[in-house]
Model the fold of this input.
Amino acid sequence: MKKISLNTGITTFPMPAAVISVGIGEEANLITLAYVGKVCLKPPIIAISINPKRYSYGLIEKHGEFVINYPTKDQLKEMDYCGTRSGRDVNKWNELNLTKEQGVVVKVPMVKEFPWNMECKVIKRVELGSHVCYFGEVVATHSDEKFVINNRLDPEKFNCFAYINGNYIGLENRVLETHGFSMK
Ligand SMILES: Cc1cc2nc3c(=O)[nH]c(=O)nc-3n(C[C@H](O)[C@H](O)[C@H](O)COP(=O)(O)O)c2cc1C
Done:
């Protein structure tokens, strides 16, 4: 296998994409993020990174809470919209006909129309350079019941997508193998 060195940019590697809610009440806003990842099991922690130029930055700083919302492939346009317009100029909830749904722990609203939501409380922030990384403890998770099997997300129905080098890539929803299959 011959490998070539790429530049140090990370945008060409697969990233999950999500729409994050920040802010409370009338000032609540939505922002699309690709820099989202699981970083700890116990307690459950997810890291997100936001550039301080974003309108959403002030809101997460103010309230210390956020909600990770995953749209389905059918809601890709909503995701792109939230990543290409600023809450300084438009009310993304109204423009996209999205509904604020109260979670069970945090005050930041969830997106009712998106089937998967994770409520998070910021436990740490780290200034890394272009982005500030927020470590959010996941305090509640929600899924449309039709995507759940045995009290867990049904992997073949988690119909989200990755963001790779400027492209939204659909993930094939087919289980190839299960954890530990290499030990059999
Ligand atoms: C697919 C996608 C992924 C993005 N990922 C991030 C990210 O991880 N961090 C970030 O600060 N901005 C990211 N952005 C840019 C913001 O979503 C965009 O600047 C947005 O308009 C900011 O909204 P706001 O000003 O209302 O906060 C992404 C945009 C898209 C389309």
